[in-house]
Amino acid sequence: MAQLGDDIFYTYRPGRANYSPVLLLHGTGGEETDLLDIGAGLFPDSPLIGLRGRIQENGQTRYFRHTPTGGFDAQDLVAGEKWLLTSMVALLKHLDLPAAPPIVIGYSNGANIAADLMLRGGPVFHAAILLHPMAVSDPVPKRDNTPLAGIPVWLSHGRDDRIVPVPTFNALVQGFIDQGAQVFTHASDAGHQITLQEIEGARLWLDRFEQPDDTEGKQ
Ligand code: MLT
User: Fold this and answer.
1) What pTM was estimated for this model as a whole?
2) What pLDDT does 178 receive?
3) Which position has the higher pLDDT, 203 or 216?
4) How far apart are the C-alpha atoms of 49 and 22, rounded to whole Å?
5) Is 108 in the pocket of ligand 1 (CB under 6 A)?
6) Among 35, 82, 140, 154, which one is most buried in terms of CB atoms within 10 A?
7) Catalytic residue among 108, 137, 156, 186
8) Is the CB of 163 under 6 A from ligand 1?
9) Using an 8 Å Cβ cutoff, are 139 and 82 in contact?
């Protein structure tokens, strides 16, 4: 674990200098190292940054709060998105990585904040792998034209997921389609947990996108 400033706790695994960094956002109760193996499996040569959620709720680390009645706290969600953007920019600078939008891999709460930020804030990530996400804003953020045109977004859902009802997954997918993203969905009979099959599905999808070839550029 490393720390930057007061509230950025992260882990870093260097990669090739000219490969897009990959930001890893864990699920509720997780930590910055949770998605390192998945990130390394999908992007073996890329710099990986795991970022720990900024709040604790009932002893669990998250990126934004619930309201006392159990809904999503819309104000804290926006505050979390601002923090996520600021932290990302600060980390890229601190780690001497390109200031261009990174790729994001998020799971559950981490996928939810990444997805909502993309829908609200434009192409802050240049590709997204969202594991078991759902819409956390109601209505789903809409914007004119197609600000996410050409951005590849891969989303997984388990038909037996008790945390992510099908309509909230579908609403999120539609939000991405409406903003022009290049959407691909992966459905399974699983629940909320990440499965090897879905990671393999994401890997096959990723094979279509090539990173620049630079055998000299290893850091
Ligand atoms: C959320 O709180 O973002 C969703 O309910 C998923 C989760 O439990 O993390």
Assistant:
1) 0.95
2) 97
3) 203
4) 6
5) yes
6) 35
7) 108
8) yes
9) no
